[in-house]
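User: I'm writing a tutorial on reading structure tokens. Could you give me a worked example: one chain, its sequence, then its tokens, then a sentence or two explaining what the tokens reveal?
Assistant: Sure. Here is the example chain.
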Amino acid sequence: MTMLDVNGMNVWFGKNRDRVDAVKGASFQVGTGESFGLVGESGSGKSTILRAITGLAPDWSGIITVDGTPIGKKRPRGFFKTVQMVFQDPYASLHPRHSVDQVLGETLHLHGFDDIDGRVAKLLDDVGLGQKFRFRYPHQLSGGQRQRVAIARALAPEPTLLLLDEPTSALDVSVQAEILNLLADLRADRGLTYLMVSHDLSVVGHMCDRLAVMRNGEIVEILDVDALRASNAAHPYSQQLLQASL
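And here are its predicted structure tokens:
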């Protein structure tokens, strides 16, 4: 089964002379329950693909299919019960004047859930925070704790596909492994599918089954993680990335 199919995706910003083509002809598939990585240097178009899938980058062409359903320019309401995104900077993605309880409660309410109290408590437990964090505000939390709240918010609608945009790059090195292990456990427990953007090949090697290497908006190669670990890449740019990571 295929959870996500991206075929011939182009994404651009601006018009006419000001137009910038950020993604050019990207195609890949992510199987149900798979963790798939997008890697490449800054500006290669990795995060732009995630934004196009969620509708945050409106100027795109190509075909996006999620769990067998083609996605048009407008996302139907049910789309966000299936697909959620975790952003790079947890402080910027949380409302500074909303408590953790408000952040999670409002998300659950928007998606039509009952027993919001019980669900908030369970979400906090699932991400390793617990009840003592429920009425704290973002400025009272560490970076790792904020990212756990952001993950809990993404899990609230009970999605099947999580888009992870550099979910640990804004965190201290000591906290990064904790968040990656949490994400790995959640994927196993809930049968989630991940599409993960990272510039760090060691992170992708730990988290992903396969990966696409991007350069200048194009996918130059798709590898499985065993080829990555064996430094067995065919494209010269992929070989450069592997050398740099060593």
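What the tokens reveal: Strands lie at 2-13, 20-31, 35-39, 60-66, 69-70, 83-86, 161-165, 193-198, 210-215, 218-224. The chain has one domain: 2-90+158-245.
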